[in-house]
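BACKBONE GEOMETRY TOKENS
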Amino acid sequence: MRLLIVEDQKRTADFICKGFNEYQFQADAVYDGAEAIYQLSEINYDVVVLDVMLPIMDGWTVLEKIRELKPDLPVLMLSACDDVDSRVRGLEMGAYDYLIKPFSFNELLARVKSLLRRKPHDNPILLSIDDLTLDLQKHTAKRGERKLTLTAKEFKLLTLMLRRSGEVLSRTSIAEQVWDIHFDSNTNIIDVAIKRLREKVDTADSTKLIHTVRGVGYVLEVR
């Protein structure tokens, strides 16, 4: 599941993103309202966590534009304004939920999960290619009838590759989206992770799915 965090305080935004990434979400952060609208026009998100006080374009205006562009996209408002009028305004404008700052991350996580349960699933719970299947809800992976024992990072990596099957993923892209770090060409962390994942997914008696594109990165596809 992919989330957009719209929060002008970079430290807070990064804290929220890191928390969601640890729970196998893919969270992106932007720091002003205009950037949020641009990001939403480029990428399909499952939930938006939207602060009210934003530069360039405030949260209320962003919410209005979201409702014009994507009427069914769940939006959770964040605000230090704890008065009833502000909460009512947000909900009447189309926010699905409204959380007061300061907040507990565990409460934010629970509220986002609740929104996802209420949302019609445009994104599949099951991802598959050939006889490889990932169940994102149960957090399980199978190759045919064989269960795969994956670490949290391996599951996140395989989810990314399945969601973007047929697309060559660079080491930089993998590092940023799975490890939330900038790729260092002096480290082989990505290559080692792919090697270990390939050993679990591609056995001698199965169709090879994980392929190396020399000088570019890796791709998951049937050849």
